[in-house]
Amino acid sequence: MTNPDTLRDRALAFHALHVKGRPLVLPNAWDAVSARLAEDAGAAAVATTSAGLAWALGVADGDRLDREHALEAVGRVVATVRVPVSADIESGYARDPEGVADTVRAVLAVGAVGVNIEDALYGDEAGNGPLRSVAGQAERIAAAREAADKEGVPLFVNARIDTFLRAAGGVDATLERAAAFRAAGADGIFVPGVVDRETVAVLVDGVDGPLNVLVGPGAPSVAELAALGVARISAGSGLVEAAHAAVRRAARELLDAGTYGSLAGGLDYGELNALLARER
């Protein structure tokens, strides 16, 4: 396990990056090389994308990946970069709050200093609705907070609220959840699925803490979101989707046309190899 003092310092540094109006921008990574590329591009921290990480391991997203394999992959990311790492742990890779606490201890053991915990339900649990109850999710967040505090590490707990993403509520429901999750120990609130300026501004004003939004084509620019008071901006699975689209285009061209134009503009072998050969 990483030295607790090192983890504590790294966690404090990660907290300090969340500033309203001067957002932490995260080009989410899914493996060691994407993490190092993000760091090399100037990212102040690296956050994993659970979807990209699951896909890289041959598993579909949506609480299908097990804790062991997920955190092995997170550990490889941590070992590759110098900047703080936050792990997207989906719903906590656990059925109950005690299991979420176990996951948080495992996150700290591999050296990550932040987590995303979402409130969406998947699989056989989805019969209870698209989202966990407010009280039930608050218990899971509280368990994560307590587990990290007992380890002496100020883990940044980013509570993801899927009201907009799952069409399960609007601003009022989102703010109700945000208040409950903050009271339970969340440090920040992540609301994917909404980027229109008016709603983002209302959420910034209504959330007591740093607001994280998910961006992609058509979303306001980083500068525009900063002006609204957003404190964290995530690309989510956007980068990995773009990377895999490039793979599919090149493969289809190679197999169908027998040509190689799609490979133009790729990163040089020597550059990539040197990037990974560099000491952490």
UniProtKB/TrEMBL annotation:
It comes from the Bacteria. It comes from Streptomyces fuscichromogenes. Pfam families: PEP_mutase (PF13714). GO terms for molecular function: lyase activity. The keyword Lyase applies. InterPro entries: ICL/PEPM (IPR039556), Pyrv/PenolPyrv_kinase-like_dom (IPR015813), Pyrv_kinase-like_dom_sf (IPR040442). Keywords: Lyase. This is 2-methylisocitrate lyase.
